[in-house]
Each structure stands twice: as structure tokens, then as C-alpha cells.
Amino acid sequence: MDTTWHSSSDLFACQTIGTNRALNLYSDSVDYDPAAPPTGTIPSGKFPKTTFFYTGQGIGNDLACLSIAGSTTPSVGQSYQYVVTVKNNGQNAQTNYTVKMMQTGDVEIASLPGLPINEAQTLTYTFNWTPAVEGPTNLYGKVILANDEIASNNQSPALPIAVQPADIQAVTIADGTETMRIPMDFYWKNSLSETIYMSDELGFVSGTITSLAFYTTFFDSPANGATKIWLGSTNVQDLSGGWIPSTQMTLVFDGNITYPSGVNTITIPLQTPYMHTPGNLVMMVQRPMDGQYYSSSDYFYGLTIGTNRTLKVYNDVTAYDPANPPAGTTPVGKVPKTTIFYSGQLIVNDLSCLTTVSYTHLRAPETPEHIVCRLLLEKKKTYNHHSHLIYSATA
């Protein structure tokens, strides 16, 4: 990123041949990441006149470490698998080399002896790692070959991770690369959305949700990142019947979030951890009325899963009321990619007053002055088995 611009007549000699030969983008404010270019760029057939200087002599020895893949939200004390990919770019087969899994600070986590690898062949190596310290860090793969002729490709791109505390687990839902302006739409001055996550997607029945993470690719960085989030547990299977109002949910976050330009993971620690009970999870997110709007290319990543998964409204004039969302909103199947961080501990003690019983159902020795409340007791380690007990209490 430069601090100034120059003449529009500073041109390169080019030619146009067919289509889809080149991608090009530019900005005065967005510092593009070559390792994660933005999606949605339209290709063209125009590309620069280029001279390549080369020698006819081939590369004999060159192993490249292409990538490392694995969980980006591991927990302390649990074992996770990470896969490092190595390719032989040289002409010679290799048998004597080492593949390593590394961490920020050039810390070696583990190493494996290399298997025989032929020219142009690709191999993967699986490492088991149990994090011991929570917090953000980077992982990367590395290949060590004596007499490697191109050292610049011996290390893979970094994999940013956030190690969670020992009692925190994470599940990511709608892990896709579709771009959408859900759960928030910064192209409008205010927006409101609601998404339902199915119980089988959550992977846990009961637990305390402590944080959420969204995945963004923003053209700019909005000055106002005001964000409000509600969570609720429900037996509703989709949103074809309309909105679940915020009055039936819990406000878990109300604050300002920084949404940087480029590709980022936005992790939001909840101000009020939410205790999820058996059923589906519903999330409402509001962008409160702002004085301005931002780029139409401020996107969240996500995935389309069936239909009736999300409701969304947006406006520059009407400030939507989360307690009374507008009727007639058409649901869509788009679901924002969301990581839910939760404590896997079961809810041991939870008494819920479900209904009162009319006087005609009172039994001796109960009188009209008694109130009968049906109590739901969810016992430890009994996910789907509930005991219904009747008690009377004097008013």
C-alpha cells in the first residue's frame, strides 16, 4: 500500500487474447492480501506483454510444502490432526527428507521422515497435536531436503488458529465460500436478520455458548460496527412461519465490533453467555440504524442449505424493531458461516415453570389459593429424558 497515487497514464503494454486470462483489482483504502485475494473479481482477456528469461537446465531437487490444514479452533488438552501437503517439483525422485509441523516462533511441534516421492508427485502427512496453551497462534508446514535448489517454497502458508480453553469446544456451521450480506448488511443504514441452526448441525444437546465467530471479506472497514445479537432455543424447524421476536430470546451481545477490510475471522465473546437447551438454536442479529451506509461488497461467507433458514430485512429509513419484526418477510436458505464456541458441560440443575393448572384440575388437599406449577427437571446425563413432577404452593 502506497501513501500516494500517480498518473493515470502510467501504462503497461498489453494485449487481449480471448477471455478469462487475467484478474485485476485496485483500491486506495484496501490493502489486498495476495494469499487471500477477494472473491467475485471479474476476469478479462487483457494481460501484460511479458518476457520470461530462463535456462534450459531443469531443476533437479526441489520439494515444496504446499499447505497445512486442520482445526482453526482447537481446545487445550484435546488431540487434533493436521495434514501437511508436500509436492516434488524437481526432476529427481527423493527418499531422504523430513516433513515438519511448525508453530509461530519457528517452534517445531513434530516431524516425520519423508516417504519416497517421484517427480510431480504430491504426498500428505498427518500430524497429531494436543495444544497446551490457549490463545492465537499460527501453524505451518515445512519440508527439509539437503541440496534443495529453491528454498523459498519449503514452508507452507500459515494457518491462523485460536486455541480455546480446555473446557471450550467449537463447531462451525455453513462452512462455505458463498458471499452474502448476512447476518448484517452494511450497504444499508440498518438491517435485521434471523437464522436457525439445526440441532444435528450443532453437534451438542445442552451447553453454554460463550462466543461466536463470523467470516468476512469486506471491501472497506465500516467506521460504525455497532452489533446486537440475540440467541434462543426453539423447537421450530424453519422460519417459514415468520420471525421469532427478540422478546422470546436472550440479548447476548450489544456493542461495537471492528470489521476490517479484507478476509478476516470476526470472533465475538458474548457479554452474556447463553445456556442452550435441547432443540434448535435461533440467532437474531441487528445492525442498528447508522448515519451512513458502506460498500455493497462488504460480505460475510456462508452457504445455502435448503430453504427457510434465514429472514432478513434492510432499510435506509425504517429502523426495525427486533421485538416486533415486520410480517411477510420471505425466508431464504442462506446461512452465514458461524463458529459457535461452547462449554460441553451439561446443565445439571434447571427448573422451568411451564404451565399453571386451572382450578378444575386441583386435587385435594389443594385449594384455589394454591398455585400448581409443572416443573421440568433436566437431570445430569439425561439429554432427552425429562421427569414431569406436580407440586403445589401456597399463594
Kindly summarize this structure in a few lines.
The protein is mostly beta strands. It has one helix at residues 199-202; strands spanning 14-16, 46-48, 63-69, 80-88, 98-103, 107-113, 122-129, 135-144, 159-163, 168-173, 178-180, 190-197, 207-218, 226-234, 250-256, 262-276, 280-287, 299-304, 310-315, 334-336, 338-343, 351-356, 370-377, 387-394.
Number of structural units classed as domains: 3
What is the N-to-C order of secondary-structure elements (H for helix, E for strand)?
EEEEEEEEEEEEHEEEEEEEEEEEE
Structural class: mainly beta
Helix content: under 10%
- What gap, in angstroms, lies between the N and C termini? 71 Å
Total strand segments: 24
Q: Which sheet architecture does the biggest sheet show?
A: 7 strands, antiparallel
Q: What's the CATH C level of the largest domain?
A: Mainly Beta
The number of distinct helices, counting runs of at least 4 residues, comes to 1
User: Runs with pLDDT <50, length 5+?
Assistant: 352-364, 366-395
The CATH topology assignment of the largest domain is: Jelly Rolls
Gross CATH architecture of the largest domain: Sandwich
